[in-house]
Structure to design on (485 residues):
C-alpha cells in the first residue's frame, strides 16, 4: 500500500486550530471499512478525528440503505447530526454511503442542513469535499457506483486493534430479486491481490491478529480481474503475512465454493475452519423466485461435503422469511432445511420490500406473517445452536482475548474460531489467579459449559499467553454499527 501525502489540505484548520471531524457509521462491516478509510484520509491531511459529536466541526454520516429499517436508522442519524449543526458547534454536515446514489438529492431537499453528498465510489475524495464545504461550497460528489475504486488508502481502525475487516472487492454481479445492493454499490470489481496483501501487512504491523475477509460475494473474487476464481490463491497469500493468526471468510456464495477453496480451509492453519454461507431459503420454488441459482438439495450436499472434508468446520448462514410468493408449505420446507443442515449460527430476517427490486414489485405478504415466520425460524435454530454449542464442551480451543468479563474477578471474554466478531457469541472463561491478560492475547481454553449462544471455559494451566508485539494507536470514531446483510 502506498502512503498518502500528509500535506494538510486548505480548510483543515479553523482559527489556527485543526478542524475536528466526527463520524456516524451505519450498516455492515463493508460500510465500516469505508468509514475507516475516510477517517484515515482525513487524519492524514491535517484533520483531527473526534469521538464526541458535540466537539465536531464537521460530522460525516455514512449511511446504510439495504432495508427499510436501515434507511430509517440512517435518516434518524442524519437528523441527529443536523441538530448538532443548528444548535451546537458543528459547521458542516456530510452524508455518504449507500443511500446517496439512490436518495441523495431527495435527502438534500428534505434536510437543508446537509452540505455535501459523497457516493459509494467517492470516499477517496472526502478531504476535498470537507475542504470545499468549509470554504462555503455545497458539494455533490456522486460518481457512477461502477467506478473503479482507488484502493491505495490509509485506514484508522474503528474495531479493536487486534481485529480488522479487509474488503477484497466492491459491488455485486448477482441479481437477487430481493436485493438493492447492485443499485447502490455497482457491479463486482475485484481488488488486485498485491493491494490486499499489502494492506494486510500494514494491518499486521499495527497489531492486527484476525482478518475478516469481506465483500458482497467473496467467492466471486477474481472472476472479473483474473478471469478465474482466485479466493483460494488470495487466502494462501494472506496466510504468508507475518503477525496474522486468524483469517475468517464471510459472504461466500454456495455455487462458487470450489474444491480448491475447501482444501485451503482444511489445510491452511491460519484460515479458520469457519465459513459464512448465506443461503436465503430452503424451498426451491422460493429460491427461483429470489433468482438464486442454487437449489436446496445442492446446498445440503455442499454442507455435508464441507463437514466431511473439514469435520470441525463452523458454518454460519442467513435466511429470509416471508419473501413474496412464500407459502406456508414453502416456509415449512425452510424449517426442514434448517433442521437438516444444523448450522452453527444463523440469522433470519423478515423480508423487507425494497424499491427498484423485482421482489419489491410483487404482491407482498402481511408484515405480521413475515415477522411471525422469522420468529418461528429463529426458535428452531435456537435449539440447533444450543446443541451445536454443547458439542464443544470438553474441547480445548485457542481463544482471542477481548477483555475482562463482568462475571467478576478472574473472568475474561474472548472468541474462538467459531465466533466472528459481534454476531456469533463469545467465550467467557476464568484464568488462573493473578493472570494479566490483555486484548489481543491468545490463550488455550478448555470449554466447560454453554450459556445461551456463548461458551464457558477455563484457561488451561500452566497459562501460556501469545501476546501482541505492538499495540495499535486506536481512534474510535463516533459510530453506530448495525448488522444488515
Amino acid at each position: 500500500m502506498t502512503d498518502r501525502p500528509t500535506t494538510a489540505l486548505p480548510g483543515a484548520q479553523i482559527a489556527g486550530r485543526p478542524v475536528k471531524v466526527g463520524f456516524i457509521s451505519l450498516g455492515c462491516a463493508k460500510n465500516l471499512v469505508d468509514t475507516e478509510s475516510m477517517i484515515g484520509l482525513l487524519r492524514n491531511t491535517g484533520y483531527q478525528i473526534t469521538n464526541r459529536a458535540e466537539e465536531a466541526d464537521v460530522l460525516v454520516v455514512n449511511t446504510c440503505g439495504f432495508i427499510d429499517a436501515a434507511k430509517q436508522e440512517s435518516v434518524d442519524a442524519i437528523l441527529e447530526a443536523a441538530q448538532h449543526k443548528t444548535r451546537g458547534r458543528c459547521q458542516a454536515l456530510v452524508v455518504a454511503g449507500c443511500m446517496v446514489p439512490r436518495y441523495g438529492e431527495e435527502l438534500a431537499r428534505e434536510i437543508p442542513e446537509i452540505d455535501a453528498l459523497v457516493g459509494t465510489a467517492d470516499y477517496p475524495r472526502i478531504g476535498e469535499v470537507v475542504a470545499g464545504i468549509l470554504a462555503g461550497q455545497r458539494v455533490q460528489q456522486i460518481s457512477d457506483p461502477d467506478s473503479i475504486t482507488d484502493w491505495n488508502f490509509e485506514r484508522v481502525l474503528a474495531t479493536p486493534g487486534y481485529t480488522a475487516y479487509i474488503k477484497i472487492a466492491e459491488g455485486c454481479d448477482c441479481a437477487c430479486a430481493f436485493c438493492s445492493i447492485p443499485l447502490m454499490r455497482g457491479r463486482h470489481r475485484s481488488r488486485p491481490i498485491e493491494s490486499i496483501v499489502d494492506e494486510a501487512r500494514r494491518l499486521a504491523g499495527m497489531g492486527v491478529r484476525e482478518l475478516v475477509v469481506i465483500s458482497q460475494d467473496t467467492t466471486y473474487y477474481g472472476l472479473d480481474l483474473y478471469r478465474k476464481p482466485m479466493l483460494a490463491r488470495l487466502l494462501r497469500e494472506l496466510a504468508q503475512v507475518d503477525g496474522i493468526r486468524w483469517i475468517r471468510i464471510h459472504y461466500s456464495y454456495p455455487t462458487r465454493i470450489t474444491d480448491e477453496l475447501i482444501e485451503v480451509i482444511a489445510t491452511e492453519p491460519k484460515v479458520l475452519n469457519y465459513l459464512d454461507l448465506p443461503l436465503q431459503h430452503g424451498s426451491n420454488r422460493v429460491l427461483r423466485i429470489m433468482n438464486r441459482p442454487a437449489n436446496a438439495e445442492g446446498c445440503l450436499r455442499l454442507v455435508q461435503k464441507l463437514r466431511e472434508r473439514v469435520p470441525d468446520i463452523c458454518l454460519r448462514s442467513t435466511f429470509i422469511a416471508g419473501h413474496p410468493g412464500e407459502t406456508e408449505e414453502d416456509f415449512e420446507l425452510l424449517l426442514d432445511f434448517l433442521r437438516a443442515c444444523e448450522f452453527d449460527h444463523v440469522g433470519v430476517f423478515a423480508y423487507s420490500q425494497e424499491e427498484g427490486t423485482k421482489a419489491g414489485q410483487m404482491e407482498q405478504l402481511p408484515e405480521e406473517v413475515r415477522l411471525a415466520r422469522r420468529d418461528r425460524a429463529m426458535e428452531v435454530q435456537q435449539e440447533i445452536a444450543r446443541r451445536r454449542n454443547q458439542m464443544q464442551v470438553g474441547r480445548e480451543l485457542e481463544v482471542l482475548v477481548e477483555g475482562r468479563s463482568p462475571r467478576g474477578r478472574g473472568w475474561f471474554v474472548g472468541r474462538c474460531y467459531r465466533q466472528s466478531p459481534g454476531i456469533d457469541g463469545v467465550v467467557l472463561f476464568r484464568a488462573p489467579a493473578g493472570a494479566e491478560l490483555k486484548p489481543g492475547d491468545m490463550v488455550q481454553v478448555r470449554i466447560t459449559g454453554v450459556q445461551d449462544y456463548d461458551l464457558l471455559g477455563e484457561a488451561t494451566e500452566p497459562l501460556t499467553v501469545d501476546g501482541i508485539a505492538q499495540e495499535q494507536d486506536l481512534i474510535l470514531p463516533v459510530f453506530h454499527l448495525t448488522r444488515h446483510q
In short: The longest strand covers residues 442-451. The CA atoms of residues 34 and 482 lie 15 Å apart. Residues 163-390 form a domain with the pyruvate-formate lyase- activating enzyme fold (CATH 3.80.30.20).
